[in-house]
Amino acid sequence: MSFPSGFYWGGATAANQLEGGWQEGGKGISCPDICTGGTATTSKRITPVLEEGTFYPSHDAIDHYHRYKEDIALFAEMGFKMYRFSIAWTRIFPNGDEEQPNEEGLKFYESLIDECLKYGIEPMVTISHYEVPFNLTKKWNSWVDRRMIDCYLRFCKAIFTRYKGKVKYWLTFNEINSATTPMGGFLSQGILNEIKAMDFMDQVDNPNNRFQGLHHQFLASALAVKMAHEIDPNNQVGCMQIMATSYALTCHPEDEIVNQQKGHLMNWFCSDVQCRGKYPNYIKRYFKDNNITVHMEPGDDDILAAGPVDFYTCSYYMSNCQTADESKGTGKGNILGGVPNPYLKASDWGWQIDPIGLRYSLNEIWDRYQKPIFVVENGLGAYDKIDEDGKVRDDYRVDYLRSHIQQMHEAILDGVDLRGYTPWGCIDLVSASTGEMAKRYGFIFVERYDDGTGDFSRRKKESFYWYKKVIETNGEDLD
User: Which residues are catalytic?
Assistant: First the structure.
């Protein structure tokens, strides 16, 4: 059952979901900073004008900005070989359009990276993880405007240069394919089609803006790959996708066609561009059928062709089913739509749990691209509680992770070149989709709650000790 020698075990986080310190060290306002908290009964909202007395979870998050040394020491105690984290764009360029970077922000991440290296932990850095400078949203409506490319590349140049020789693995955009859905317009791209307070999950959508924004992100990614290789030939740059595994609900041919069409758009369109260096033919019909026009300039095809990524990474949480029968309705909780699979159980948030779908997906990815793969997000959001004896018994999380690790090993035996695994939210943090703390993923419990209370203290869950054993035995001991 052992994994390959040198396999990267670790964990993953994002700056806006754990750092806090939202106005410290010269940091500017990012799009997550204007999102309110949410709970099981109240929706997360976008408020372009900050409201006095409103709780904004990213402002303090879990206070990692002041506690990163403590947190990384805990990661090292588990035996992490890799830590995937993101650099907040607004710590380096507070407004996004400055000519020179903020030195205090660069120093903060340098110290964080050095802390990882001290313990032998390989950093994997996401350059843009659901965090666009809000100034660029107000100024240009973010990635709708081609000028965003130059701002992004200045950001890349600053961090590629500063952390040369310390960071080898880079990801250009987190879950870039989320922008193929209406929710991704603001979450992923910082695009607001109406500048007003609105329900985060029910935004005014403009598909033209989203796909124009994606085109600019594709160009920025390709140019960043080229830049990274020029600054340091040892740099490896990857894409990061949501792997939204889907199946036809029945063997009816119409269900198969609907599943293929939706799978192409969600799972393959963005990675086809980033891995193959060109737009796939099937997207042309989608654009035509949906009256989407993407403006491209002469030379754009050459830029894409010259900047394919070096490796592929994805998140994997759930699968869903697709059907042509509209009477079946949509799934509850499966954030990416589809209809429920009658053979699967679901998490507390209705996300259907499908470990075998991970093996299936890894084989599909490998067969399609033949590039090294990392699973950089996977995990179970659940309501964890502290028992009377002070312990957090999260056997359900262990069961979830164990079953997915087993299927990753099966994929490796199938011939997939899988290099690493960094489960999501290795320490409790703010949920990106709901703005909750109650939806916990971590191996480490953080005393922080949805009403803004809590002292930020850390305690190890039972899964902490289990994952430590998994890493020590390179995946052999999963009991």
Answer: 377
